[in-house]
Structures are given as structure tokens and as C-alpha cells.
Design goal:
alpha+beta, eight-stranded mixed beta sheet, four-stranded antiparallel beta sheet, 12 helices, 36 strands, 34% strand, globular, disordered N terminus
């Protein structure tokens, strides 16, 4: 018996529970003076809002809500927290407000029937922006402003797929984003003149992730400046700056910060716009900088305890930043950094070629929250592999090998969602459990993934979907060609779009895989368009195709009509309350395969939506998946993750 098999027999159950139940903290926000921090954490088994003094390193105090928490924003005046909650754990969200001490809790928007998206606070901090999604196709999206003390709302803006990115300090100007996925544009709305002014090189479009309106050093001629994280008309995401005149008209836009080796993915600012916080994505890892807008001086922040920063916040007074940091061996934790210490530490220098930063500065961050997962030798650190797809396009992926593994053995492809998401070296209880069970995990970034530039993320649009499906086969060929996987013992798995890609690969390559696990994936793209949330379906047209104009393409790309080609044993998992990829996508593919007498198992997670937010649900999924794969990949005795459920 090999070492991995011995671990499977004796210890995976305890390890899996420890990994799933290890607390994590994310989504930090700070009081204006940086003295207090609020975040979302799952220390109690389900995400809730927590608050504590920034100088402490404890557990904080929990602010209880009736639904799992998704995000929290601190008001500019320091008097309120605005919280986004997942209604009953599903896709649709509600917005609540509460005082930082936990009093005066109030529900202000959203319900089981209507999704409400949490927006920014007004710069004076007295009111909150909320965006109300349409209930039916063809209805507009509405942005409103809410008084947290009374719950009264007032109209702000209306449009197709709009979201409010920011407001000017005097609330005259709104920075709005509109458009479908990867085809977004931004405008500044003058609320006094009731006019809007397009930004960037309109009508060029792209992905715009963050936008801020701040005071401009140019004075009265151009009193405001818009900072945008965007790839509109550009090869990769950069920081663009565009002056805004007193009447809202745009000045000449220019690249304010860029890197040839990275994409910008996070941005924050102090209140006056003098200091910016930048987080760059460098081949999946994160690099953090502070940028002085007056001098354009960029100062790196080093010494972080993990490779990936998944959230960040700069206090409004510019004194402190809090970063959410994680890695393969540690769940998400919050760390604070003193800004003055960063700016005064030795090691600064001019930016290098292509905007590359100088050497990172030796500043030691301090913990705000620490995961309950103790250091363990049972966790595996992945290695990054690069290889060519069928048409020569360079792909990459993170390889997790069982300790002591030599030569080909059982393996699992894990396909991320999105498809614009990105596989990165973060903590994954699923990957670690499969490796402990003796299964090599390869988590690739096929075309369509973010983090590799505009051309790569759009390489799978519409007809490019065929090439994305072919990328899955290229991943298998890489594993088998380098002796990393036994060709007869490879599984394909994925969630959301990755679940769709799993089904599509099983249809396209029926003899390639020994098993498959589809987690909340689409089985029929036309049904998906009809049954998904209206705003989700409308935004997806630029990515997958139009359900009317591209009907034949969507049908040919859908796994359900070709379910007869699926011969490998399949496990289908779906959340009961999923309205992003509705649960009918699972019911139909399971029914089709059962009618064909094919080996298919089904697990429906009660009380869960598209994201599985409760530790109990995550553990049940991991238990079921480990037992299913160890059986069908012939990894010896089923993993002792506990007794698996009775599958429907």
C-alpha cells in the first residue's frame, strides 16, 4: 500500500473536516480613521459580519444577520456598516445597515424575489447606493440612494445593466458602468444638468472592474479625476486616469499605471485621492503597491505571508491598509500594514521598464485575523506548469501531486468557473483532500480565464467555445505525455462554467475520462438563458452568444442534446436555491442519463445557491466527491471522509 493510500484509509476524514471548518476572513473594510476593521468571516460555520479594533489580533465581535453575509462596507462618516446578505443562502441578495456596535439593524433593499446589489456610500457618508436588478427580462436596472437612519429611498439612475462605481464628494457626478460581460463602457452623469458624458475611447469597450472619482490636482478647470481599472481598447487591465471638467465633460484619458508582466485587479484610494492602493496579478500571484498621485511615485509593499491578495482596503485618511492574504496552506486571513512605515522603509527606487516596480520593501505586516487552521505538513503546495494547447496557444495550470507519488497514477482535472475566473495558488480544501486521497490534481487556466490579458480572456467568446473545449483535451495530453497521469484513470471536474465544460468535455471526448463531476454547471445553454436571472442572462450574451441570433450555435454547444455520448460515471451536484445556473440544469442532464441507463449519481444541497456558503454543505460535497472519485479512479478503499450520503 502506498503512502497516499494509507492516508486515505486512516486520516482523510479528520483532515477534510479540519480543512473545511477552518475559519477564513475576507472582504475587509475600515472606519475612516483606520482604527477599526469589519469583514466577512465564517468562524461560526456560516459567513457573518465581524468587527474589531485594527490593533487587535483576536476574533472580533460578530454582527448577526438572518442570512449569510456576502460583503460589508463602512460609511464615510464612520457611523454605519452596509451589509450584503445572500437571501436564504441563494443568489439574490439583500442590503442591510447596522451601527458598528451592532445596534439599529435595518433591512433596506432586496428580497427573496428581487436582487439588490450593494453599492458605494456617498462621500459624506450619510447615504448608501443600492442597485435593484430587474425582475423580468426587458425591465431596467434601477440605482437608488438610501438613508440608513430612516430607510427612505430616492432615485439615482436607471439603465440596462448599470452599476454605480462612485460619486463625487458633492454628489453632483455619478460614475456609471454599463454593458455586457467584457463589453462594458463608463459614463459620468451630471445630475444637475441631467446629462451623461462617455469616458475612455467610447465606443471602445472592455472589462472595467473598479472606478473612483476623486479630487483632481488640476483645480477648477478639471476639478475631478476618474480612475478606472480597465482593459477597454487595451491589451491588459491598467489604471487609466481621465480628468473631468466642471460640467462633467471628459478631458484626455491616459494610462496612469501599467505593467507589461501583470494585470491590475484591485484599486482603492484615500479620501482626497492623494494615495492609491494597487494590487497586481502576476501569473496568479499578487504584488501590492502604493502610488502617490502627485509625484507618480510607486512604492511596493512586501513581506506578505501568502502569495495571493484576494481583498484590500485603504483607510480614508490614508494611514493604514488591510489586506486579505491566502495561500495553498493557509485560508484567507487579514493583515494590516502601516502606510507611513511602507513609505519610509529603505528599498525604494524608480519604476523599471514597462512600469515594473522597484524591489519590494521590507515591511512586516501584523495580523488582524488568523485562521483556526494550524500549520500542517499534510498540505501540498502546487507548482505552475506551462504548455501549448492544440492550436499553439500557451496555457498554464497548477499541479498538486500526492506526497511520494512517482510516475503516472490517478488524476483529476479541476476546471474553474467564470469562465473569466482564474485558478490561483489559494487554499482549496477540495484540491488538498483529493491529493491526500492519492489523486493528482491539475487545475488549468484554459482560454477565457482572466489574468492573462484581453485577447486570452476573449479567446473563448461564442465560436471560440469549441477551442476552449479542445483545451481540456490538451490538458489531458500534457499530463499523460509527461508521465503525470494514468490515461485510464483521469477524471474531469468543475463548477459553474467549469461544470458546463466538464459535461462538454465528456460529450466531446467520451473515451478520455474515467469519471466526471459536474458541480452547478449548465447542461443546456438555451434553457440557461430562459431560466437564469434576467440580469445574468442579459450580461452573458457577449460571452456565450445571443439566444435568438445564435440559437443554433448554443444548441450545438450544449451537452444535453448529446447526452448519449456521455459514457463515463458522472456525479452531478447542485444547490437547491441556485438561480444563477438554475437547478433544472442538473435535473435535465440526470434524467437524460438515467433514461439512457448510464451511471449517474445526483447530490442536491439543500438551502444552498450558486455558492455553497455553509461549512456543512462544503464538507458533504467533499465527502461525496472523494468517495466517488476514489472508487471510479481505483485509488484503493474509499476515502474516509465520513459515510457518504444516499445519492438520488
Amino acid at each position: 500500500m502506498t503512502a497516499p493510500q494509507q492516508q486515505t484509509r486512516t486520516g482523510l476524514g479528520d483532515l477534510a473536516r479540519r480543512w473545511v471548518e477552518a475559519s477564513a476572513s475576507w472582504g475587509p473594510t475600515m472606519s475612516p480613521d483606520g482604527r477599526q476593521v469589519a469583514w466577512v468571516g465564517d468562524r461560526n460555520g456560516s459567513p457573518q459580519v465581524w468587527v474589531q479594533d485594527a490593533e487587535d489580533s483576536g476574533t472580533g465581535r460578530v454582527v448577526e444577520f438572518p442570512h449569510p453575509a456576502v460583503a460589508v462596507h463602512w460609511s464615510a462618516d464612520g457611523q454605519w456598516l452596509a451589509c450584503a446578505l445572500a437571501t436564504d443562502g441563494g443568489v439574490r441578495q439583500q442590503v442591510w445597515v447596522v451601527r458598528p456596535d451592532g445596534t439599529h439593524r435595518r433591512h433596506v433593499a432586496g428580497s427573496a424575489d428581487r436582487h439588490a446589489a450593494l453599492g458605494p456610500w456617498t462621500r459624506a457618508g450619510h447615504r448608501l447606493v443600492v442597485t435593484l436588478a430587474p425582475v423580468a427580462a426587458g425591465e431596467p436596472t434601477q440605482a437608488v440612494v438610501v438613508d440608513p437612519a430612516t430607510g427612505e429611498t430616492g432615485p439615482l439612475a436607471e439603465g440596462a445593466l448599470i452599476s454605480v462605481l462612485d460619486l463625487s464628494a458633492d454628489e453632483r457626478f455619478l460614475l456609471l458602468r454599463d454593458g455586457t460581460r467584457g463589453a462594458q463602457f463608463c459614463v459620468v452623469v451630471d445630475r444637475v444638468a441631467d446629462r451623461d458624458h462617455p469616458l475612455l475611447a467610447y465606443p471602445a469597450t472592455g472589462s472595467t472592474d473598479v472606478g473612483l472619482l476623486r479630487r483632481s490636482p488640476a483645480g477648477q478647470e478639471q476639478p475631478h479625476i476618474a480612475y478606472l481599472v480597465t482593459d477597454a481598447g487595451l491589451p491588459r487591465r491598467v489604471l487609466l486616469a481621465q480628468p473631468i471638467g466642471p460640467d462633467g465633460r471628459r478631458g484626455a484619458a491616459g494610462v496612469f499605471a501599467e505593467r507589461e508582466d501583470a494585470e491590475l485587479e484591485q484599486l482603492d484610494s484615500d479620501e482626497d485621492g492623494r494615495l492609491l492602493l494597487l494590487v497586481w496579478n502576476v501569473a496568479g500571484a499578487s504584488e501590492v503597491e502604493l502610488l502617490d498621485t502627485a509625484t507618480r511615485r510607486r512604492v511596493p509593499v512586501g513581506g506578505l505571508p501568502g502569495p495571493v491578495v484576494t481583498g484590500s482596503a485603504l483607510s480614508r485618511d490614508g494611514s493604514r491598509l488591510v489586506l486579505c492574504v491566502e495561500g495553498p496552506e493557509r485560508p484567507r486571513e487579514l493583515w494590516r500594514v502601516d502606510v507611513a512605515a511602507v513609505l519610509s522603509a529603505p528599498g525604494d527606487g524608480p519604476a523599471g521598464a514597462g512600469g515594473a516596480p522597484p524591489a519590494q520593501r521590507a515591511v512586516r505586516p501584523a495580523p488582524v485575523t488568523v485562521s483556526t487552521l494550524p500549520p500542517s505538513g499534510d498540505l501540498v503546495h502546487p507548482t505552475l506548469h506551462r504548455f501549448s494547447s492544440h492550436d499553439g496557444l500557451e496555457l498554464s495550470g497548477w499541479l498538486y501531486r500526492p506526497p511520494g507519488a512517482h510516475g503516472p497514477g490517478p488524476a483529476m482535472l479541476s476546471l474553474h468557473g467564470g469562465p473569466e475566473a482564474q485558478e490561483r495558488p489559494v487554499f482549496s480544501a477540495q484540491h488538498q483532500a483529493m491529493v491526500t486521497a492519492g489523486i493528482t490534481v491539475f487545475a488549468p487556466n484554459v482560454r477565457g480565464s482572466s489574468g492573462f490579458g484581453r485577447a486570452f480572456v476573449h479567446a473563448d467568446d461564442r465560436l471560440g467555445r469549441w477551442d476552449a473545449i479542445a483545451d481540456v483535451r490538451s490538458c489531458v495530453e500534457y499530463l499523460t505525455g509527461h508521465g503525470l497521469a494514468d490515461p485510464d484513470r483521469i477524471a474531469v471536474t468543475g463548477r459553474s462554467y467549469g461544470g458546463y465544460l466538464t459535461l462538454a468535455a465528456l460529450v466531446a471526448f467520451p473515451r478520455t475520462f474515467a469519471a466526471g463531476v459536474d458541480i452547478c454547471g449548465m447542461s443546456d445553454l438555451l434553457h440557461f438563458y430562459r431560466e437564469s436571472e434576467p440580469w445574468i442572462a442579459a450580461a452573458a450574451v457577449s460571452k456565450y452568444g445571443d439566444p435568438v441570433a445564435d440559437r443554433d450555435l448554443l444548441r450545438s454547444l450544449s451537452p444535453l442534446p448529446r447526452a448519449h455520448r456521455i459514457t463515463a460515471p458522472l456525479l452531478v451536484v447542485h444547490g437547491e436555491l441556485d438561480t444563477n445556473v438554475p437547478v433544472g440544469e442538473a435535473h435535465r442532464i440526470v434524467a437524460a442519463l438515467r433514461a439512457l441507463d448510464r451511471p449517474v449519481s445526483y447530490l442536491e444541497l439543500a438551502g444552498e445557491g450558486h455558492e455553497y456558503r455553509r461549512a456543512s454543505s462544503q464538507l458533504l460535497l467533499l465527502q461525496t466527491m472523494a468517495a466517488f472519485l476514489t472508487r471510479h479512479l481505483r485509488v484503493g478503499p474509499p476515502a474516509r471522509c465520513g459515510d457518504g450520503p444516499a445519492l438520488g
